[in-house]
Amino acid sequence: MNWELARKRLCDGIVGEAPNIAARLQALAPPGSLVVSEATLRLVEGFFEVEPLGQQMLKGVSAPITIYRVLRPSAAPNRFEARGGQFLTPLVGRETELGFLTKRWENAMEGEGQAVLLQGEAGIGKSRLLQTLRMQLRETPHTEIVFYGSPQHQASALWPVIQQLHRALGFAADEDDVARRDRLRHFLADLDLDSADVVEPLAMLLGLSAGPKWDAGPADPEQVRRAAFAALSRLTSAVQRQSPVLVVVEDAHWIDPSTTEHVGQMLSEMVSQRLFVLLTARPEFRAPWSNSSPLVTLPLARLSRRETEAMIRGVAPDDLPAAMVAQLVAKTDGVPLFIEELTKSVAESRSNVGFGGAIEIPATLQAALHARLDRLAPIRHIIQVAALLGRVFDADLLIAVSQRDAAAVKRALHDLIEAELIYPRRDPHCESYQFKHALIQDAAIGTLLRNQRAQLHRQIAVALVELRADAVGRNPELLAHHLQEAGDWGGALDHWQKAGVAAMARAASREAVSHFANAIDCSKRLDDVSGGAERMTRLHLAMANALTQAEGFRSERLSQALDAARRAASDTALVELQCEAAISLSGFFYATGRNRDYLTLADEQLKNHADLLPPAYVSGLWSSKGTAHFNRGEWRFAIDALRKARDLIDRTDASRRILLGGADQLIATQSYFFRSLVAMV
Q1: Where are the beta strands (DSSP E) in 80-139?
Q2: What is the DSSP letter of 540?
Q3: Selecting from 3.40.630.30, 3.40.50.1390, 3.30.160.70, 3.30.70.1230, what CATH number does the domain 3-74 have?
Q4: Is residue 232 within 8 Å of 145, Cβ to Cβ?
């Protein structure tokens, strides 16, 4: 026997039969291959495709062992599917709902598009029912499109759609634009969609540079947006022609406005398509398409007492006393996640305390989750960092932020998987994981003190800059969120503002409103010594522009933003900025019939600042005055004001002109001038 090897095994804590079997398997494995025993295969079953190599007699092992050669990772996207459901909590009390969904799927396969919203409180079992359906359909040829809503990305335009495209295309983190564009082109060619009007909008959506065939394409953000939605529509239609499609929208209450619009587009076009759109959402979610689409809401109720008892018996690893089961039934109130977590908490406590020991049953789901996390004290830091990274998190970011050894982090992740708090996600290009439920993520965050949380957000921000520079460049809000949570108001303000500008460039005005609102909040927390009034004015004007696009000129929030911009501008000595704020009010005043009020405001600006303003700004005031007179039917006054505006524009270099109504001021002025002349005839 090799005594030095034996000594090393004892020092490393590796004893027994396992190291001997591993050494024998290593000798049997062909060069460059991986061989595992049947016992190991059971631990990773479903995650890998394997080839059986038959039984082998190994030296030092009394019985023959079946061995397998590992071929490649499987296509299972998560632990649920990888293990064929053997570790899932038993599905109890949802037979009627599952039958309803199955019938809808059968109708969809026949070309009768279907849409169902699974709605219920957190922990009621929406995802569990959905997963059962997906597993039930595994033997049926079909395509899945999955959009995951995320609280961290509610204002990132089309975030779930972009992530789904990344998964479908198999983008690797280190691939350049050329390789990614090539993947996209081949993917679309297989669907007969390789024309530029599909390839280029999707390429732009994925953050890839425009190809030469798109040089003459639309430059206006709204046109680009419409082109992207048209391309997505054609993509869905092409996929369902090849096979029936199950579209899953998980946590619809967290999807961004643009994804909401895309889902609505799917619903409106699915009538004769082989499409089944299945959404999950909490009760507060109000589907904006329910009145204009064939969307059926399927509410999930709490489990009955009998069903609760059955679930407890299915979760508990051993027989629980009847009195304890009765207490669990009373405290869990029929909520499946609560039932599962309290039962597991009690089972873990019994194993620690021993038979006959006193056990305290947690009173709430949060208490149960905290109790389970407390028992994971050695690795609690890992799950806390993971929770701040998001419902879905990447291993490399977790290692960087936790500042722990990679091997230690991997062991902690294994323990969290075994505790069924997280699941691995199937992604050949990125090792990532997902919390079993958002409430588990929330509970982990709740164990952090405020200063601990802020410090970790700072570390996450640093890691994002170092490891996800491209993603941060495309979506500055990813970094802005963590900077804001860390209390770095200046850095957060800068990135929220960049996010708002980027969203407006994509015509994602509702997302831009959210970004600018966050920027304004950060700006309020900064001292005014660094030009605070000017900064606030420009932020409120940017917010007003986004609100105009999102809600129209009659919006009450637009009125508030414009008023805030005007008040902030009055605290500066910048007459051009004050004039810009005044002119920005014109559209709202016109739309709400307050033309007389606007004339008063414009006259005040001309009286106080005409001699201090550049000609383009003075022209803008005269032009907006002329429009107000036109709206009041005062044609002569309108012609006079608009003629003065034209004369000033003629003396202004084109590069120094301002925009009126989103267009060059000459266009707006000429338009109302000629309309006034016609009205006079």
Answers
A1: 114-119
A2: H
A3: 3.30.70.1230
A4: no
Q: Would you say how long the chain is, in residues?
A: 681
Distance (Å, whole) CA 451 – CA 165: 37
CA separation for the pair 598, 573 (Å, rounded):
22
Instruction: Report residue 244 as tokens.
Output: 């029936």
Residue with token string 């016609």: 678
In 208-341, where do the E strands start and end?
A: 245-250, 275-281, 295-299
In this structure, what DSSP letter does residue 320 have?
A: P
**Cβ of 189: how many Cβ atoms within 10 Å?**
12
In this structure, are strands 245-250 and 143-148 parallel, antiparallel, or unpaired?
A: parallel
Among candidates 608, 537, 523, which has minimal Cα distance to 572?
537
Query: What values do phi and psi take at 395, rounded to 5?
Result: -65, -40
- Partners of 461 in beta bridges: none
Q: What CATH code would you report for 583-681?
A: 1.25.40.10
| pLDDT for residue 604 | 95
CA distances from 557 to 288, 501, 503, 540, 567 (A): 20, 19, 19, 11, 15
Cβ atoms 562, 585 nearer than 8 A: yes
How far is C-alpha 341 from the geometric centre of its chain's CA atoms?
26
Do the domains spanning 470-573 and 583-681 agree at the CATH topology level? yes
Judge contact between 453 and 481, C-beta under 8 A: no
> Among 382, 469, 393, which Cα is nearest to 148's?
393
What pLDDT score was predicted for residue 84? 46
What's the chain's average pLDDT? 87
Query: What is d(CA 147, CA 164) in angstroms, rounded to the nearest whole number?
Result: 6
Domain limits, the chain: 3-74, 81-299, 305-373, 377-448, 470-573, 583-681
For residue 674, the Cα-to-chain-centroid distance in whole angstroms is 49
Query: Of 93, 113, 136, 150, which is closest to residue 339 (Cα–Cα)?
Result: 93
Other C-beta atoms lying within 10 Å of the C-beta of residue 46: 17
Q: What is the pLDDT of residues 316-344, one digit of tens each?
A: 866 778 888 898 898 888 999 989 888 88
Task: Extract the runs of DSSP E, i.e. beta strands, from 77-191.
Answer: 114-119, 143-148
Q: State whether CATH 3.40.50.300 applies to domain 81-299.
A: yes
Residue with token string 């420009």 = 538
Record: fold of 470-573: 1.25.40
Which residues in the chain land under pLDDT 50?
1-15, 75, 77-87, 216-218, 353-358
Strands 275-281, 295-299: parallel, antiparallel or unpaired by DSSP? unpaired
CA angle, 24 then 25 then 29, to 5°:
125
Q: Which of 584, 676, 658 is nearest to 618 (CA)?
A: 658
> Does the pTM exceed 0.85?
no
DSSP string, 586-599: HHHHHHTT-HHHHH
Question: How many helices and strands, by DSSP H and E, does the chain display?
Answer: 32, 13
The tokens describing 388, both together, are 């701040």
